[in-house]
Specification:
One of its GO terms (cellular component) is cytoplasm. This protein is α+β, with helices and mostly antiparallel strands. The protein contains nine helices and 21 strands.
Length: about 425
């Protein structure tokens, strides 16, 4: 299986596109206009007991939602005589999710700082190993060594900063997650990285305790760095970019050899045209998507749900006994295209798909089986619920960030203009 990641600019947005065996699998807008994963000194503006949460202003006129049920260990930067956020409190928060529709940013005290092989996390005790690493004796031994070093580093943190945070009632300790691509590393590299992350976290706390409201104390690396870190362990992986800044950041932060990282230069043929990224984005922003059979999809996003209508279009089904079978073949093509479009558009929530009608119940059952099998390829959780008596297929997809249209600065029913 060959995986290729293309990073290029299109329509004033930095885009990463992942291809597996030359088939488009994901489109990501990498511009961090919503400060995702950045860490700020916030001010508690409003406490709403009825929803067990508060709203925190973390940047000039930008507020975020902070749920008490999700955040148990707050990092207060002012003296406290209780353990809960109160209006006016100075608090350290990380931006986790962008605003969506009428909802503000989601904020968290579970600070995370990712790097090549490790993730420093306040939500982890000790050292955890990625579930993708199966029965690796070396990694298990490294985890034990790292756990001992972690204990010493947390003790050092308390010694150096304990006095500053003494009256804030804040817990400072953290843990590590060993990432899947650590199988390509060695213990020395992991220890060096652990010290780097420890020093980064310590510097964040030092700046924060004396910083002003709304100060950004940590700026995260671009999202494509995380994406590359997940892919670098794959044997047949190549990254191509025409963006100098992206090329430099990847070269310095990801464990990629020169044979797997390529800088593209060709003024006559832009990178987004060479790999059909323009076509893929344009199609993913249109209401209508044509299929090879001549049929087409109509995708309508509403506030409550997304509706996908499969139309026969130019497709002419066979007559008689073979009509159901020919409709089934088109429905299979439409099912695959629907799941691809949900993934590329990053559509979440409830999705209703109206396939071409088939009288044969066994073919309907086969269609559902195919959908469930194909849905496993989506890294975001997709559930094929059932087919209703009216022949409508119900699908749910876990929300993860904004839709492609939102990231491209378009309204729900607006299309990209040339």
């Amino acid at each position: 299986m060959s995986t290729k990641l293309i990073i290029t600019s299109y329509n004033n947005k930095l885009i990463s596109a992942k291809y597996v065996d030359d088939e488009i699998k994901s489109l990501t807008v990498c511009d961090n206009e919503h400060n995702i994963s950045d860490i700020f000194i916030g001010r508690v503006e409003n406490v709403v007991k009825s929803i067990n949460a508060c709203f925190i202003e973390f940047s000039n006129k930008q507020k975020g939602y902070y749920a008490f049920s999700e955040n148990k260990d707050h990092i207060f930067l002012n003296n406290k005589n209780n353990d809960l956020p109160n209006i006016g409190d100075k608090i350290l928060v990380q931006v986790k999710n962008p605003p969506h529709k009428t909802k503000p940013h989601t904020l968290s005290s579970k600070l995370e700082i990712p790097y090549k092989y490790l993730v420093l996390s306040r939500d982890v005790n000790g050292v955890l190993v990625s579930k993708k690493i199966k029965n690796d004796e070396n990694v298990s031994n490294w985890a034990a060594s790292l756990a001992y070093e972690l204990k010493l580093m947390n003790e050092e943190l308390v010694r150096e900063l304990g006095a500053d945070f003494k009256d804030t009632r804040s817990k400072l300790s953290y843990g590590f997650i060993i990432r899947s691509n650590a199988v390509n590393a060695n213990l020395t590299e992991l220890m060096d990285e652990a010290k780097h992350l420890h020093n980064t976290y310590k510097e964040i706390l030092k700046i924060a305790i004396h910083g002003l409201f709304y100060t950004k104390v940590y700026e995260s690396l671009p999202s494509y760095i995380t994406e590359v870190s997940h892919l670098v362990a794959e044997e047949d992986f190549e990254l191509v970019t025409d963006n100098k800044e992206a090329f430099s950041l990847i070269k310095n932060n990801c464990n990629l050899s020169d044979t797997r990282l390529r800088f593209y230069e060709d003024r006559l043929l832009p990178l987004y045209s060479l790999y059909s990224i323009k076509h893929n984005i344009d199609e993913a922003l249109r209401r209508q998507v044509w299929l090879k059979s001549g049929a087409y999809l109509v995708i309508d996003e509403t506030e409550a749900l997304t509706v996908v209508d499969v139309n026969s279009g130019k497709f002419v089904p066979k007559k008689g006994k073979d009509k159901d079978l020919s409709n089934y073949n088109v429905n299979i093509e439409a099912a695959r295209a629907t799941l691809t479009q949900l993934r590329l558009r990053n559509i979440s929530g409830i999705i209703i798909v109206d396939f071409i009608n088939m009288k044969d119940e066994s073919l309907n059952e086969d269609l559902l089986k195919y959908l469930k099998m194909e849905a496993k390829d989506d890294e975001v959780g997709v559930r094929i619920v059932d087919m209703t008596k009216l022949g409508l297929v119900e699908i749910t997809r876990t929300k993860q960030g904004q839709t492609l249209k939102e990231r491209m600065g378009l309204e729900r029913n607006e299309e990209l203009r040339d």
